[in-house]
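Read as chain and fold; for instance:
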Amino acid sequence: MRRFALFLSCLPLSVFAQATVEDVTMIEPMSPSYLFKLTGGLILVVVIIFTLAWLVKRLNLTQHSQNGLLRIVAGLPVGTKDRIVLLQVGDEQILLGLSPGRIEKLHTLSDPVIVEDNAHSSAPFAEKLNKLMNKGEAQ
Protein backbone atom coordinates (compact mmCIF):
# COMPACT_ATOMS: atom_id res chain seq x y z
CA MET A 1 0.00 0.00 0.00
CA ARG A 2 2.87 2.31 0.80
CA ARG A 3 4.54 1.65 -2.54
CA PHE A 4 1.30 2.42 -4.37
CA ALA A 5 0.98 5.76 -2.56
CA LEU A 6 4.61 6.57 -3.40
CA PHE A 7 3.97 5.66 -7.04
CA LEU A 8 0.90 7.93 -7.21
CA SER A 9 2.80 10.84 -5.65
CA CYS A 10 5.66 10.50 -8.19
CA LEU A 11 3.42 10.10 -11.23
CA PRO A 12 2.75 13.83 -11.79
CA LEU A 13 6.47 14.56 -11.49
CA SER A 14 7.30 12.04 -14.20
CA VAL A 15 4.80 13.63 -16.57
CA PHE A 16 6.44 17.03 -16.14
CA ALA A 17 9.89 15.53 -16.57
CA GLN A 18 8.92 14.01 -19.93
CA ALA A 19 7.65 17.29 -21.34
CA THR A 20 10.29 19.03 -23.40
CA VAL A 21 10.50 22.28 -25.26
CA GLU A 22 9.85 20.42 -28.51
CA ASP A 23 6.38 19.34 -27.31
CA VAL A 24 5.18 22.93 -26.92
CA THR A 25 3.33 24.15 -29.98
CA MET A 26 2.75 27.82 -30.61
CA ILE A 27 -0.72 28.94 -31.65
CA GLU A 28 -0.86 31.89 -33.96
CA PRO A 29 -3.29 34.53 -32.67
CA MET A 30 -4.93 35.14 -36.05
CA SER A 31 -5.28 31.52 -37.16
CA PRO A 32 -8.81 30.39 -38.06
CA SER A 33 -8.87 27.70 -35.37
CA TYR A 34 -7.89 30.19 -32.65
CA LEU A 35 -10.46 32.75 -33.82
CA PHE A 36 -13.14 30.04 -33.97
CA LYS A 37 -12.39 28.96 -30.39
CA LEU A 38 -12.34 32.57 -29.19
CA THR A 39 -15.63 33.43 -30.90
CA GLY A 40 -17.26 30.23 -29.67
CA GLY A 41 -16.20 30.96 -26.09
CA LEU A 42 -17.53 34.52 -26.25
CA ILE A 43 -20.85 33.36 -27.69
CA LEU A 44 -21.13 30.72 -24.96
CA VAL A 45 -20.57 33.32 -22.22
CA VAL A 46 -23.18 35.68 -23.72
CA VAL A 47 -25.70 32.82 -24.02
CA ILE A 48 -25.11 31.87 -20.37
CA ILE A 49 -25.63 35.48 -19.25
CA PHE A 50 -28.90 35.81 -21.20
CA THR A 51 -30.10 32.40 -19.97
CA LEU A 52 -29.49 33.33 -16.34
CA ALA A 53 -31.22 36.71 -16.82
CA TRP A 54 -34.23 34.97 -18.42
CA LEU A 55 -34.30 32.41 -15.58
CA VAL A 56 -34.29 35.12 -12.90
CA LYS A 57 -37.10 36.97 -14.69
CA ARG A 58 -39.09 33.78 -15.33
CA LEU A 59 -38.89 32.55 -11.74
CA ASN A 60 -39.66 36.03 -10.39
CA LEU A 61 -36.70 35.79 -8.01
CA THR A 62 -36.22 39.53 -7.66
CA GLN A 63 -39.62 40.35 -6.14
CA HIS A 64 -39.69 39.49 -2.47
CA SER A 65 -39.86 41.60 0.66
CA GLN A 66 -37.59 41.19 3.64
CA ASN A 67 -40.28 40.53 6.23
CA GLY A 68 -43.10 39.19 4.05
CA LEU A 69 -45.51 42.09 4.66
CA LEU A 70 -45.65 43.12 1.00
CA ARG A 71 -46.37 40.59 -1.72
CA ILE A 72 -47.18 40.86 -5.40
CA VAL A 73 -50.19 38.61 -5.92
CA ALA A 74 -50.52 39.08 -9.69
CA GLY A 75 -49.27 41.29 -12.48
CA LEU A 76 -50.40 42.01 -16.00
CA PRO A 77 -48.45 43.91 -18.65
CA VAL A 78 -50.71 46.47 -20.32
CA GLY A 79 -48.21 47.95 -22.74
CA THR A 80 -44.49 47.84 -23.43
CA LYS A 81 -43.67 49.70 -20.22
CA ASP A 82 -46.97 49.77 -18.30
CA ARG A 83 -48.25 47.14 -15.86
CA ILE A 84 -51.18 46.54 -13.55
CA VAL A 85 -50.21 44.87 -10.27
CA LEU A 86 -52.28 43.40 -7.44
CA LEU A 87 -50.34 44.03 -4.22
CA GLN A 88 -51.03 42.30 -0.90
CA VAL A 89 -50.31 44.52 2.13
CA GLY A 90 -51.12 42.55 5.28
CA ASP A 91 -54.80 41.57 4.85
CA GLU A 92 -55.55 44.29 2.29
CA GLN A 93 -55.15 44.05 -1.49
CA ILE A 94 -54.47 47.12 -3.62
CA LEU A 95 -54.61 47.34 -7.41
CA LEU A 96 -51.79 49.55 -8.74
CA GLY A 97 -51.01 50.97 -12.16
CA LEU A 98 -47.25 51.11 -12.84
CA SER A 99 -45.65 53.14 -15.58
CA PRO A 100 -42.17 54.66 -15.90
CA GLY A 101 -41.92 57.43 -13.33
CA ARG A 102 -45.42 56.94 -11.94
CA ILE A 103 -47.29 54.59 -9.60
CA GLU A 104 -51.03 55.13 -9.30
CA LYS A 105 -53.54 53.46 -6.96
CA LEU A 106 -56.41 52.18 -9.09
CA HIS A 107 -58.59 50.39 -6.55
CA THR A 108 -58.61 48.88 -3.05
CA LEU A 109 -60.33 45.50 -3.06
CA SER A 110 -62.96 45.03 -0.35
CA ASP A 111 -62.94 41.23 -0.80
CA PRO A 112 -59.36 39.92 -1.17
CA VAL A 113 -58.67 37.65 -4.12
CA ILE A 114 -57.52 34.22 -2.97
CA VAL A 115 -54.70 32.91 -5.13
CA GLU A 116 -53.31 29.40 -4.84
CA ASP A 117 -49.55 29.16 -4.28
CA ASN A 118 -47.78 28.64 -7.62
CA ALA A 119 -44.30 29.02 -9.12
CA HIS A 120 -44.72 32.80 -9.43
CA SER A 121 -45.36 33.43 -5.75
CA SER A 122 -42.98 35.61 -3.80
CA ALA A 123 -41.37 32.80 -1.80
CA PRO A 124 -37.77 33.32 -0.74
CA PHE A 125 -35.04 32.38 -3.18
CA ALA A 126 -33.94 29.33 -1.18
CA GLU A 127 -37.42 27.81 -1.27
CA LYS A 128 -37.75 28.33 -5.03
CA LEU A 129 -34.31 26.83 -5.61
CA ASN A 130 -35.18 23.79 -3.49
CA LYS A 131 -38.41 23.28 -5.46
CA LEU A 132 -36.48 23.39 -8.74
CA MET A 133 -33.83 20.99 -7.44
CA ASN A 134 -36.48 18.53 -6.23
CA LYS A 135 -38.31 18.66 -9.59
CA GLY A 136 -35.06 17.75 -11.36
CA GLU A 137 -34.47 14.77 -9.07
CA ALA A 138 -38.03 13.49 -9.50
CA GLN A 139 -37.66 13.22 -13.28
Observations:
- Strands lie at 70-77, 83-89, 92-99, 102-109.
